[in-house]
User: Which sequence fits this backbone?
């Protein structure tokens, strides 16, 4: 991407460049502001020298001015202040506006970029760090825009203008004053150079503190379960202490240089006053001019000192900018082809051809996987923990991209269509349930915000959660807490199932999505889904065999390879891995049940009712 | 200052849970209308905040004294320096070289002194400020560790975080910047007034006619800007909350293709934030020029009336110049005070929010007479326990359960029956509503939290791993465990194999929540972590729900020896997992409906027997089965009902 190699500051400024009209306005206002700012002291000096007109006579000074002139000067002073006010308003407001717009743009960019970065990025990302960037760092840039950029222009304009006026008034006195400006600027620049690396570290430490805090708070249940509060406190204290050390160092630096700057400036004022007084004494300077100089000095003090702040804001913004561009420049590992068409008219024929994949370059997770899921089929994935089941389903909607081979839907390579249309074809119930802190209703409708109440209820019914929701005092408007904390495991899973069902996808994926649901409810859900699954291709991952027994294809994964593939009976006959699992999990029960069936038959003589009474 | 009196309460922005906030739960931080933080800029003075801060700052008395000296000295020196300027000019016009030089030297002395005072001010305020911040952070963190889980059920992590990260900062600014700046300003104003009076009393009185105008202007501005600033704070809080959820929920967002919708919503929220800020910016931009004009009017008065007085011989020229310069210095602190006003409001509000956390009483704390339990046998008794999370929704009803030391109890029941809740009560995550729970005959409320926790090992239903290495994660159960012991624990739960296959084995870095592991693997690690703790009481809440059957069998075998002599509670839906339990408890809606050994329960032919059959028999007894729905009375009979527009079987491939 172009622009990536440019310095961060330039890239940041290019955001402001989008508002160049306003920037120009702000600059114009600045010039106006400076002009009228210069006029102020000028008028005072005019009032003193012409209005009062103190002049040297033998043995002292005399005054013989005119009250009219004084009055005119006074009116002009107010008039100039008004004009200055208008320009100042324009300048501040426009500047702030641009800065806010830039912050707004950056925030939008971060948000949108983050939500489009692929899973690979988010796997490694630390929420605390990202938040730090999106909040504090953006704020740093806003400050830089409003206080840094525009102030810099202001300072430069003001310095040049005052210098000119001062030189025109009395070049000797101007020289005395101006001798002090380079050292002042230099000191303030040295200060910021020293501050910069420490600032950077402070920002990093703040981020780290945030991460520690975030993990502690989100893992509070574990902390409490193991009674590790003290260790956590020690960890936090160490980070906080570290942050203290560094932020205190910034304070030391500022406390050293600040007074030096102040002192130098005070000396400049003294020198000007003292030397000016001499000039007056010798009749080379008027009282008004000295007053003017002193007023100018008062006016310059802030801008000159703020050269330091400008560099500081700049230093902060460039590190902040760097950190923000770490996010914005992160390229999604999953890219859409330019001009890719939408995936339309999906029938649900999913094929894996010789697919290989690894989360990193070193360890392959899937090796040469071939799957052929016909439209409408139910495909079950079975295998040990970590064998790659979730990985298989994560590849289909391109949460990650295959490293070898290809995946097609209805014969089209999934990399040749738009991401949005591809993902719309899928309804995935993820293994790791995440609910938003919102109402149950909002959570179920999360993927289909235009769903009607009936749709929502129906989806909830299918997921067997509707009746439970109705028992809650607030029903569908019950707040579920962060990540669904106020619900039981099975309830969360069922809400997440309902959420997916509402999408009406062509291909359904259930990744261990009833693991926390009791067998009975699970069975009822399956019954309810049986109808819905007609005409849809369905992938089911489950650890409980019964869930997968009736699938059209059962794929058994081992170490990223498909080692067995077939229907239940076939795989039992094959006497392989599947058979082993079956023996471990179900055989006992079936046999036990057989025994019981016989026993019941003996006792009651009518076993069927007890066993399959409700079957339909 | 007069305009301080103008502060009312913050109009229509007072909080209360409305909107998406739902009803305010107990133990929950205040929310505003948008469901986020209630950020009300009420008063500039909160007694609670100030007294508490005074207590906190007390140990730093000496530094505080220095700071005050610095502030006062600096304010004085800067202000009286105009005397020197005036003196210089006076000497010059009088042609008195000696006096001129004396004033010059005095001026230099003032300059040096002011720099010295400034140094004192900066170092001591900085020291106090950063110390205070550190201390507040530590205190808050410590307090957060004490708050019960109910607090965390009700307050999002992001909200709590913003209090310990940003609100404490505003409080610190108040203590260091705010208070002292105000002191300096007030003193500065007083000295400036004194200097002005020294130069010319009449002129002072005349110029002061603008002060009421200034005060009224500022007061009016305050009234407007307060709201604007409240809005700014609220808007950014909402933006941040949204961002946070966007990050943590990104997998769901992408899988549901919600990006566009979210982008729209976020843009909306972000724009509101923009507008709030631009509005506030407008107000800020407007006030300065207004003040400038007022100040200029004062200067004009000085020029006109002062000049007149000079010509009449009532005032010397140098007096006029000094007066004009001193006037500039008067208005600086006045302007600053106005800015401080908002700062102060913000700091007080931040302080209130910090205190709200610090003052949230932990739902329960260790009883002063609580005892440490050391060697326990592991007996657990539930004596007629009832429990509810929120009022009106009873979760456990009069549960009576007595567990012998070393017994393995399996909890079975429909989702939401209260299994997890039972285990949460043993570890005292929550307190029972009525009845009692005893461990080894001691009420858990009489046992210290730490000693209880250290006797227990819990595998939570939702495995939570910290970012860090595998070693660190497993070691969390017992910090002094050796690597060897960690490996053993991992072997016991069948995790050793996969861990050794990871890139760096046990040293592999796990990302937040263990995102780079499969869900089953996360479960195994959290299992190993619990075992390593060498608990007397072990709680396995669906510890192997996402683990395959084969691995599970490995674990089962290992557990048989491991569980010997330990009391354990096992929750599992895969009934093969629990059939060997000493006692199986079948729960329904928070009540025990059946209990006994596997075979006995099967023979009983009740709930358990039916569940057991269902694990493989597809058609077993579906007619009598009900989900949680039994509670509601009517059960939406799933099949055959799927015919609403959105959820019909997919017929046509085009949609
Ligand atoms: N923190 C909480 N705040 C409010 N209600 C809660 C909270 N945790 C659980 N509940 C409610 O209490 C009931 C019992 O929940 P519990 O987690 O004990 O169920 P469970 O038997 O473990 O279910 P599952 O098998 O689904 O995990 C549920 O209805 C649930 O919604
Ligand atoms: N985001 C990730 N980054 C790096 N490695 C990963 C990531 N997710 C999974 N892995 C690794 O890839 C392998 C396959 O993981 P996957 O989640 O597909 O397993 P699974 O079969 O779904 O297991 P389970 O039954 O436990 O859910 C595992 O070894 C796991 O450690
Ligand atoms: Mg998985």
Assistant:
């Amino acid at each position: 991407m172009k622009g990536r190699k440019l310095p961060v500051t330039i890239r940041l400024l290019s955001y402001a460049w989008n508002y160049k009209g306003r920037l120009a306005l702000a600059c114009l206002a600045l010039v106006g502001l400076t002009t009228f700012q210069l006029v102020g002291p000028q008028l005072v000096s005019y009032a003193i020298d012409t209005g009062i007109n103190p002049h040297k006579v033998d043995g002292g000074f005399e005054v013989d001015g005119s009250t009219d002139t004084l009055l005119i000067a006074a009116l002009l002073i107010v008039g100039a202040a008004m004009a200055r006010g208008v320009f100042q308003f324009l300048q501040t407001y426009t500047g702030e506006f641009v800065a806010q717009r830039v912050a707004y743009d950056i925030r939008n960019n971060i948000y949108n970029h983050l939500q489009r970065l692929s899973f690979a990025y988010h796997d490694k990302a630390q929420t605390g760090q990202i938040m730090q960037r999106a909040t504090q760092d953006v704020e740093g840039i806003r400050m830089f825009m409003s206080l840094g950029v525009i102030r810099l222009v202001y300072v430069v304009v003001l310095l040049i203008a005052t210098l000119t006026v001062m030189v025109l008034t009395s070049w000797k006195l101007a020289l005395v004053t101006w001798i002090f400006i380079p050292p002042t600027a230099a000191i303030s620049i040295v200060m910021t150079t020293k501050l910069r690396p420490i600032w950077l570290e402070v920002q990093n430490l703040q981020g780290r503190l945030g991460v520690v805090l975030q993990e502690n708070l989100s893992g509070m249940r574990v902390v409490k379960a193991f009674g590790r509060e003290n260790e956590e406190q020690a960890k936090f204290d160490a980070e906080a202490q570290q942050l203290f050390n560094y932020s205190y160092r910034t304070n030391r630096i500022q406390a050293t240089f600040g007074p030096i700057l102040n002192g130098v400036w005070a000396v400049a004022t003294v020198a000007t006053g003292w030397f000016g007084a001499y000039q007056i004494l010798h009749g080379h300077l008027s009282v008004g001019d000295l007053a003017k100089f002193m007023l100018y000095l008062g006016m310059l003090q802030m801008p000159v000192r703020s050269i330091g702040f400008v560099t500081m804001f700049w230093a902060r913004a460039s590190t902040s900018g760097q950190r923000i561009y770490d996010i914005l420049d992160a390229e999604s590992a999953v890219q859409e082809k330019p001009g890719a068409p939408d995936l339309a008219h999906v029938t649900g024929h999913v094929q894996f051809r010789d697919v290989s994949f690894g989360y990193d370059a070193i360890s392959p997770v899937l090796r040469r996987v071939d799957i052929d899921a016909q439209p409408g089929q139910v495909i079950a994935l079975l295998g040990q923990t970590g064998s790659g089941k979730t990985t298989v389903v994560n590849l289909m909607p391109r949460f990650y991209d295959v490293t070898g081979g290809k995946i097609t839907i209805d014969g089209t390579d999934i990399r040749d269509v738009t991401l949005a249309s591809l993902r719309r074809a899928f309804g995935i119930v993820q293994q790791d349930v995440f609910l938003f802190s919102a109402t149950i209703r909002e959570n179920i409708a999360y993927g289909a915000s235009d769903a009607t109440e009936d749709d929502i209820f129906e989806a909830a019914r299918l997921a067997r959660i509707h009746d439970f929701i109705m028992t809650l005092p607030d029903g569908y408007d019950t707040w579920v807490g962060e990540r669904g904390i106020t619900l039981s495991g099975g309830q969360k899973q069922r809400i997440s199932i309902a959420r997916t069902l509402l999408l009406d996808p062509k291909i359904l994926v259930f990744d261990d999505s009833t693991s926390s649901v009791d067998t009975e409810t699970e069975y009822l859900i399956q019954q309810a889904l049986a109808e819905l699954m007609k005409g849809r291709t369905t992938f089911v991952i489950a650890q409980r065999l019964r869930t997968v027994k009736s699938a059209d294809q059962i794929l058994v994964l081992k170490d990223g390879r498909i080692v067995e593939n077939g229907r239940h009976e076939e795989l039992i006959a094959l006497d392989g891995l599947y058979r082993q699992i079956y023996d471990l999990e179900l055989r006992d029960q079936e046999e036990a049940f057989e025994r019981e069936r016989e026993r019941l038959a003996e006792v009651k003589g009518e076993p069927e009712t007890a066993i399959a009474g409700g079957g339909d | 200052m007069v305009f301080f009196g103008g502060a009312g309460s913050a109009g229509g922005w007072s909080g209360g849970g409305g909107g998406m906030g739902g009803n305010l739960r107990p133990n929950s931080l205040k929310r505003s209308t948008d469901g986020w933080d209630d950020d009300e800029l009420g008063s500039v003075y909160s007694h609670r905040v100030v007294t508490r801060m005074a207590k906190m700052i007390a140990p730093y008395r000496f530094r505080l004294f220095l700071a005050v000296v610095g502030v006062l000295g600096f304010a004085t020196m800067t202000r009286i320096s105009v005397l020197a300027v005036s003196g210089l000019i006076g000497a010059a016009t009088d042609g008195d070289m000696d006096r001129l030089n004396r004033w010059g030297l005095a001026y230099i002395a003032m300059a040096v002194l002011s720099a010295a005072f400034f140094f004192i001010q900066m170092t001591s305020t900085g020291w106090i400020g950063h110390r205070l911040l550190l201390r507040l952070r530590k205190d808050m963190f410590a307090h957060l560790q004490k708050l019960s889980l109910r607090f965390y059920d009700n307050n999002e992590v992001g909200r709590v975080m913003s209090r310990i990260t940003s609100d404490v900062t505003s409080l610190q600014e108040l203590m260091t910047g705010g208070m002292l700046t105000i002191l300096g300003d007030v003193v500065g104003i007083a000295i400036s007034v004194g200097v002005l009076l020294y130069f010319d009393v009449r002129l002072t009185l005349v110029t002061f006619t603008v002060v009421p105008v200034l005060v009224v202007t500022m007061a009016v501005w305050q009234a407007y800007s307060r709201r604007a600033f409240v809005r700014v704070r609220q808007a950014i809080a909402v933006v941040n909350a949204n961002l946070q959820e966007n990050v943590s929920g990104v997998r769901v967002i992408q899988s549901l293709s919600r990006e566009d919708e979210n982008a729209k919503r976020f843009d909306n929220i972000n724009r509101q934030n923009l507008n709030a800020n631009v509005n506030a910016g407008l107000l800020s931009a407007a006030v300065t020029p207004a003040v400038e004009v007022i100040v200029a009017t004062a200067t004009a008065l000085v020029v006109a009336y002062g000049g007149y007085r000079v010509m009449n011989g009532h005032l010397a020229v140098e007096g006029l110049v000094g007066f004009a310069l001193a006037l500039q210095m008067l208005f600086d602190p006045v302007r600053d005070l106005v800015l401080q006003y908002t700062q102060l409001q913000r700091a007080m509000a931040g302080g209130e929010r910090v205190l709200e956390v610090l003052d949230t009483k932990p739902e329960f704390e260790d009883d002063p007479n609580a005892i440490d339990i050391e060697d326990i046998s592991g007996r657990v008794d539930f004596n007629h326990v009832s429990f509810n999370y929120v009022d009106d929704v009873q979760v456990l009803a009069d549960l009576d359960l007595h567990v012998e030391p070393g017994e393995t109890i399996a909890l079975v029941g429909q989702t939401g029956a209260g299994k997890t809740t039972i285990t949460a009560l043993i570890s005292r995550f929550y307190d029972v509503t009525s009845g009692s729970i005893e461990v080894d005959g001691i009420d858990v409320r009489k046992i210290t939290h730490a000693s209880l926790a250290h006797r227990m090992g819990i595998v939570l239903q939702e495995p939570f791993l910290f970012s860090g290495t595998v070693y660190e994660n497993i070691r969390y159960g017992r910090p002094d465990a050796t690597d060897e012991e960690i490996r053993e624990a991992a072997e016991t739960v069948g995790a050793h194999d996969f861990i050794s296959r990871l890139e760096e084995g046990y040293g592999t870095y796990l990302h937040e929540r263990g995102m780079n592991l499969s869900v089953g693997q996360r479960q195994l690690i959290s299992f190993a972590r619990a075992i390593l703790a060498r608990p007397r009481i072990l709680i396995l809440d669906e510890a192997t729900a996402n683990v395959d059957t084969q691995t599970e069998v490995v674990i089962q075998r290992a557990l048989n020896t491991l569980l010997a002599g330990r009391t354990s509670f096992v929750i599992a839906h895969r009934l093969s997992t629990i059939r060997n339990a000493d006692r199986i408890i079948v729960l329904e809606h928070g009540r025990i409906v059946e209990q006994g050994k596997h075979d006995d329960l099967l023979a009983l032919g009740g709930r358990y027997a039916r569940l057991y059959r269902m694990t493989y028999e597809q058609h077993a007894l579906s007619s009598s089965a009900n989900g949680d729905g039994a509670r509601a009375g009517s059960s939406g009979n799933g099949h055959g009902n799927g015919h609403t527009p959105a959820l019909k079987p997919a017929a046509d491939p085009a949609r």
